[in-house]
Amino acid sequence: MEKVLLLLAGVSVLYALDNGLGRTPPMGWNSWERFRCNVDCDNDPENCIGEKLYMQMADRMAADGYKDAGYEYVNVDDCWMAKERGPDGKLQADPKRFPSGMKALGDYIHSKGLKFGIYEDFGTQTCGGFPGSKFFMETDAQTFADWGVDLLKLDGCYSNIEDMTSGYPIMEFFLNKTGRPILYSCSWPAYFVAYKKIPDYKAIAKSCNIWRNYDDIQDSWDSVTEIVNYYAKNEGNFFEVAGPGSFNDPDMLIIGNFGLSRDQQRAQMAMWAIMAAPLLMSADLRKMDPYSKSILLNKDVIAINQDPMGQPGSIILDMNQIQIWFRPVMPKGSAAFAVLYTGSYGTPEKLSLKCETLGMVGSGGYNVTEVFDGRYVGMFKSADNINITVNPSGVFLGKAVYLGN
């Protein structure tokens, strides 16, 4: 066990896209999971995909502490476009739902000190049936740059997966050609996984800052655990190519919506921190309850997610619905660990775990803190045991700061 943990702590990333962006997992907000493709602004003006929604979310991010906590991208997802391109072949926003246009929306988001993300698709159409970028990648890349876009999410509907290996790097080339820094989010591997093929993650990491590699998240605990269990398998060794500049994306945070209990919300936040995942909220920030907001703004959990080493964690043990994950963090020799209880039995699990199992493998001592509440647990050495209680469908997130020899 000690040799495995030391090996994980020493992994270096050789395949990351080097465009200067995404040196830590990006943080922000995305409309899709919560608001989907609601284009009915006549009957549902407060929740439809239109400029008002994104402006209000930008307002809330700037005013309610999210921007100060590190959340910076306001990402427009599918269904923002008109059904046809303009006479010049360029994309255009739906004129009724985005009457000011996308450049004006981007300017508004930037005026709040935030960044502007947008959605397109590698295929002939987006997943929602709007114009895709196939045969228009250079034009679209320049259009996005002209609008002041800071992040592009490129989906993969209505396309052939055999074309993605060459096609997604082409969009990267055209984005770089614009001269504007645009963080590149790829759905390329997710479509390979859907067809039960193993993606070439080394190639993906060379072209993409972040990449989706599993199904869309839904508003449920089952969906969260399904994603975590998929990541635990690490099929294709995708954790090994992740690091500064290139990160796996298990999809959006559903904290603050309808489907998760309080403990389950903590669990999702903890696991996304351990996995070095993008923290992209998808909830109605206008109606965020205080408890959910406190999880999303927890500075110590965010610090683990944003650890400058950028090395994702991985599962160490999986036993009877208890998963133990470990991630190396700064200061050097320190560890973040998560003990996840995926079961739904009515009684918390009480565990006595050897500290070495949790990533504390150095010869010196460790100060251990429970991260969400900031509760000091004690000073331990690798041979010691630590007692941990985990609620059903909950998590214990710990940080062990190495004190040296």
Characterization of this structure:
The protein is globular, with a radius of gyration of 21 Å. 30% of the residues lie in helices and 21% in strands. A hairpin with a 4-residue loop joins strand 13 and strand 14. An eight-stranded parallel sheet has the order 7-6-5-4-3-2-1-8. Strands 9-10-11-16-13-14 form a six-stranded antiparallel sheet. A two-stranded antiparallel ribbon has the order 12-15. The longest helix has 17 residues, at 161-177. Helix 11 (262-274) runs parallel beside helix 13. It starts with a helix and ends with a strand. It has 13 helices and 16 strands. By secondary structure, it is of the alpha/beta class. 50% of the residues are buried.
Q: Quick recap of the structure?
A:
By secondary structure, the chain is an alpha/beta fold. It has helices spanning about 1-10, 30-35, 50-65, 65-70, 100-110, 135-145, 160-175, 190-195, 200-205, 220-235, 260-275, 290-295, 300-305; strands at about 25-30, 75, 115-120, 150-155, 185, 210, 245-250, 280, 315-320, 320-330, 335-340, 350-355, 365-370, 375-380, 385-390, 395-400.
